[in-house]
Amino acid sequence: MKKTIITLTSVVILSLGLATQANASETAKPPAEEWSWTGYFGSFDRPSAQRGLQVYAEVCASCHGLKRIAYRNLSDLGYSVEDIKSFAAEYEVEDGPNTEGEMFMRAAKPSDSFVSPFANDEEAIAINGALPPDLSLIVKARAGGEGHIGINFIKWMAGRGTASGADYIYHLLTGYIDEDDLEAAIKSGDLPHDFELVEGKSINKWFPGHNITMVAPVDDDAVEYEDGTEATKEQVSRDIATFLAWASEPELEKRKSVGIKAILFLFVLLGLFIAVKRRMWANIKH
Amino acid sequence: MSGPAPEFKNPIVRWIDVRLPVFTFMHHEYRGFPVPKNLNYFWSFGGMAMVALIGMILTGIMLAMQYTPHVDHAFDSVERIMRDVNWGWLIRYIHMNGGSMFFIVVYIHIFRGLYYGSYKDPRELLWILGVVLFILMMATAFMGYVLPWGQMSFWGATVITNLFSAIPVVGDAIVTWLWGGFSVDNPTLNRFFSLHFLLPFAILGVVILHIAAMHVSGSNNPKGIEPKGPQDTVMFHPFMTAKDTVALIAFILVWAFFVFYAPNYMGHPDNYIPADPFSTPAHIVPEWYFLPFYGILRAFTADAFIYWPVAWLMTPKLMGVLAMFASLGLLAVLPWLDTSRVKSCSFRPIYKWLVIIFVLDVIFLGYLGGKPAEGWYVPASQWATFYYFVHFLVLTPLVGWFEKPKPLPTSISEPVLDTDSSK
Nearest-CA residue of chain B relative to A69? Predict the structure, then answer.
């Protein structure tokens, strides 16, 4: 009996070990940061996410869309209906056709999705030289795992989820290397020896290939925070990563709180049925 | 095999049973169905697979109500399910992880069959139906993974459907026919959705045959000797149902853990990027449960030693495709490759280790299948592939002849009654 369970468990873990291969990334992995929403009980740090919204609106939104989030979704982050209405009203969306058959512009409403900065991908590429990706899913889409197969497995099982995507965002934003520091960066191993800067690109330690079209978007005091927090480059990068993690997985908090109840229920049920089974088999020699 | 005809007290049940004896049938097949009493928890994985299938069908039907099979809307409709549909994230995560869970339990179910010789006389057809189920599952899972229309969906579909182009003369025509066009595009997505909806019901049909065949021969057991009488068995209901329920709850617990706490662990992050035919991901990898077979497929490079013998006859790509299908086909003929009459590896001191090494080889192939085709991974996957076939075609028949099995107990209950340890 015990032997069977041990065998079974090891077979299951071995099979699961395979799964890690599918999402282990090949390029260097940015170091893991502490985030508030990891673990079995984690939740988004509201003030940080709110500051992140400010960073998005004042910095990122000039190039990047966030089209899968509607203004009404901001109530998740603790904004009131009034706040959301006035925030949405700062943007214009195309509506129509009206009774005359004309398309017209109007102020955005809470039910509208975040207005994208460009009319279409072609316009975005024409202006920026490359497509600035929509940020709605960026944290999930950059969650390249936790590196080593065993550590990756343990961290996922501990409920770290797609936080490796937020690690990437944070380190990407803080990982820009000045052209003057190029030699030093190659010497220190931050960049590969054969690195060559492509004309018109910026250098980033964590971007695959290290040549990135996006110029360093945040610096110290890139924004002036409404809540008075000092806007260091690191703080701004943390806040935007937190906000984008929420945008990627707005269901995360509900998922985790329902999860605890479901898992506890199943554990109790399992205990009861183990008792039933033992009682049933008590008189059978096997 | 069946007990006395049951007397139903409920008049409605009696009325129905006279006209359509479903209750008598259920009574005979479960309350009156004897199973070896020494079954261990490995025998619960069939039931788990059944629960996984039903869970997949139910969540799948709900997802289909909200999903739009169109290249311009598929990705968005999945994200709408995740964000705006009530409990949509739960349904979708159950379905998404359910695929992996289904494969985990089925792989263990297959391992159980390999280790305890469940494929041998009189269960060959039962086993072959199982192989058919496995192949149907793979087809269904492959098409399901295409539906969210992310980067891995698109490129996975492109790579796998392109395999058929290796077929001489008609290959390219077949690929065009499969795609419904000249690349993976809207017609491909539409037909994959249609087939992904259809195939699970085909699986359900074959599952019923699989279970029917099992009810004819009865379950195998860890000793691999057939029950000699009632002292060796218990009735399926209530004894096995009580035991299987424990296993099922444990299974659902693991499934729930992934749904709530690691829903994206077994997926690929690139699938949260909408499909883009103009941008190829750095490494295209299939879902983890295909990796061992993907490893076999890729092992056949032009300079691979396993390719030399057939180099005069076909391209390495064609050989890879044939080997991949052969690796599944060999499972189906295993009952005739294994020459030993002893079923359970508990009594086969050599083959026992061969089965374990084989399983490690498959896991290793899976590891290699997930790695880029470079460096030591390439020769390693060639040797692992070589061993996969040697196991079935050389070792399994050979060991059956010269291996001296341990003495078999005379009956299932003998070791218990003799108060002698069963080992």
Answer: B83
- Measured between beta carbons, which residues in chain B are less than 8 angstroms from residue A25? 269
What three-state secondary structure class fits B342? Answer: coil
pLDDT in tens, B340-353: 999 999 999 999 99
Dist CA A87 CA A81 (whole Å)? 10
Residue A278, token pair as written in the block: 């033992």
Tell me which residues of chain A, numbers 166 to 195, contact chain B at a CB-CB cutoff of 8 Å. Answer: none
Q: Are the beta carbons of B53 and A215 closer than 8 angstroms? A: no
Q: What is the mean pLDDT of chain A?
A: 92
Residue with tokens 């890879």: B320
Nearest to A4 by CA among B101, B221, B211, B417: B221
Question: Which tokens belong to B56?
Answer: 């997949």
Beta carbons of A146 and A155 less than 8 angstroms apart? yes
Burial class (CB in 10 A: 0-12, 13-18, 19+), A47: middle
Separation between Cα atoms, residue B276 and residue B150, nearest integer Å: 8
Residues A231 and A283: their CA atoms lie apart, in Å, by: 71
**Beta B34-36 vs B233-235: how paired, if at all?**
antiparallel
Q: Say which residues have a Cβ less than 8 Å from residue B350's Cβ, sequence separation at least 6.
A: B399, B403
Chain B interface includes A274 (CB < 8 A) = yes
Closest CA to B63 of B92, B35, B87: B92
Residue B215 bears catalytic tag: yes
ipTM at complex level: 0.92
| Residue whose structure tokens are 């599918």 | A22
| One-letter amino acid of B312 | W
How many Cα atoms within 13 Å fall on the side-chain side of residue B75?
20
CA distance A244 to A77: 12
What is the token pair recorded at B347?
Answer: 């009594």
At A20, is the pLDDT very low, low, confident or very high (cuts 50, 70, 90)? low
Q: Using CB atoms within 10 Å of the CB of residue B15, give its burial: 0 to 12 exposed, 13 to 18 middle, 19+ buried.
A: exposed
Strands A202-204 and A211-212: antiparallel
Between the alpha carbon of residue B178 and those of residues B153, B192, B203, the distances in Å are 16, 10, 21
Q: Which of B51, B102, B246 would best serve as a mutation to test chain A binding (most A beta carbons within 10 A)?
A: B246
Whether A165 contacts chain B with CB within 8 A: yes
Q: How far apart are CA B185 and CA A215, in angstroms?
A: 35
Q: What does the alpha-carbon distance between residue B399 and residue B348 come to, in Å, rounded to a whole number?
A: 10
> Is the model's pLDDT at B241 over the cut of 90?
yes
B279: which 2 tokens? Answer: 């941008």
What residues contact residue B265 under an 8 Å CB cut-off, 6+ apart?
A19, A20, A23, A156, B258
Residue the block writes with tokens 């299951």: A12
| Whether the Cβ atoms of residue B244 and residue B47 lie closer than 8 Å to each other | yes
Name beta bridge partners: A95.
Answer: A104
Q: Is B306 left (phi over 0), alpha (psi -120 to 50) or beta?
A: alpha
Determine contact, residues B133/B50, Cβ cutoff 8 Å. no
CB proximity B232 to A under 8 Å: no
Tell me the residue type at B80.
Answer: R
For residue A142 the two structure tokens come to 């950059």
Q: How confident is the model at residue A22 (pLDDT cuts 50, 70, 90)?
A: very low
pTM recorded for the entire structure: 0.94
Q: What is the pLDDT of residue A16?
A: 61
Strand partners, A176: A204
Chain B closest-CA separation from residue A284 CA (Å): 8
Give the rounded distance of the alpha carbon of A119 from its chain centre. Answer: 25
- Contacts with B145 from chain A: Cβ below 8 Å: none
| Closest residue to B239, CB basis, from A17, A256, A280 | A280
